[in-house]
């Protein structure tokens, strides 16, 4: 059987822990935002369970493909319809309009692209999808771009499958992975700069919100310094995280493929031995 190295096991465990830890922090963040200290543990626990579910999806290639293939268009149409409708109508009606466009998105999925073509989509189209959800995620977390890092993990997993079959050259594979990592990093830099401009334009409220979340007193100068350092750190960390996810998952898919091929060969050998015995 193919050998799974210790270093790869450690990397896979680290990668598998990202979503549970991140979703626990999201649960804690939401409860802290609404100053509901009694539900912090419950929200964090629910986030942890949801994170385990996300990690499970990421480690199952067919399931990951189906979810990632089915989700972007319906979700994008739902969010756009909901946001625009909310300007002109009541909350519930806007939600119903969004749900209708979500169903239209599911129908469009079946008409526009097939699952096996999902990893052949042009990079320009993928870039637009990624940027849209980066902006949506920034809005969902009220201008805090930290959780946009999770999109880099999903992008890394996608890249690992995208380069799995068409490219035989290791140099070409690594080039594509690095390019993808730089794209996610520069996208996050743009998102962070945008969030920083919004924060500076309303400095008093942004400072109060930061102090509420961090539970420490901040001066304006220190807050601005943290914004600048945070932008640099998040950009570099996003590059490293995306590349780490892509390379780790690529090694995992190679291991899984070799394992399946070995199992098939063993079954064929056993079938051949059984046939010989019968003869």
Q: What is the domain total for the residues?
A: 3
Radius of gyration over all CA atoms, rounded: 22 Å
The average pLDDT value, as a whole number, equals 85
User: How far apart are the termini?
Assistant: 30 Å
DSSP strand tally? 0
How would you sum up this structure, described in words?
With about 280 residues, the chain is mainly alpha-helical. It has three domains: about 1-60, no CATH class; about 60-115, no CATH class; about 120-260. It has ten helices and no strands. α8 (about 170-200) packs across α9 (about 205-215). It is globular, with a radius of gyration of 22 Å. The two termini are about 30 Å apart.
Layout of helices and strands:
Layout lengths: L5 H28 L6 H19 L2 H10 L1 H17 L2 H22 L10 H18 L8 H14 L7 H32 L1 H12 L5 H59 L1
Helix pairs in contact: 1-2, 1-10, 4-5, 4-6, 6-8, 7-8, 7-10, 8-9, 8-10
Q: Nutshell version of this structure?
A:
With 279 residues, the chain is an all-alpha fold. The chain is built from ten helices and no strands. α1 packs antiparallel against α2 and α8 runs antiparallel to α10.
């Amino acid at each position: 059987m193919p050998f799974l190295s210790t270093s790869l096991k450690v990397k896979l465990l680290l990668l598998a822990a990202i979503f549970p830890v991140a979703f626990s922090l999201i649960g804690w963040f939401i409860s802290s935002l609404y100053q509901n200290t009694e539900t912090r543990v419950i929200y964090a626990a629910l986030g942890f369970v949801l994170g385990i579910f996300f990690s499970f999806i990421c480690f199952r290639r067919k399931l990951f493909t189906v979810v990632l293939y089915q989700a972007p268009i319906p979700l994008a149409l739902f969010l756009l319809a909901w946001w625009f409708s909310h300007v002109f109508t009541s909350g519930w009606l806007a939600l119903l309009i969004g749900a209708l466009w979500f169903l239209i998105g599911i129908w469009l999925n079946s008409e526009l692209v097939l699952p096996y073509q999902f990893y052949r989509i042009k990079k320009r189209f993928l870039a637009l999808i990624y940027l849209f959800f980066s902006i949506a995620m920034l809005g969902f977390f009220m201008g805090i771009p930290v959780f946009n890092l999770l999109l880099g993990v999903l992008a890394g997993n996608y890249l690992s499958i995208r380069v799995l079959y068409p490219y035989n050259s290791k140099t070409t594979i690594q080039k594509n992975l690095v390019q993808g990592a730089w794209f996610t990093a520069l996208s996050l830099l743009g998102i962070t700069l945008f969030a920083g401009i919004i924060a500076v334009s309303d400095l008093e409220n942004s400072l109060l919100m930061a102090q509420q979340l961090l539970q420490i007193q901040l001066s304006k100068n220190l807050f601005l310094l943290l914004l600048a350092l945070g932008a640099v750190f998040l950009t570099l960390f996003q590059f490293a995280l995306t590349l780490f996810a892509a390379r780790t998952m690529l090694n995992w898919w190679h291991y899984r493929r070799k394992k399946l091929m070995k199992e098939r060969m063993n079954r064929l050998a056993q079938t051949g031995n059984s046939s010989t015995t019968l003869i």
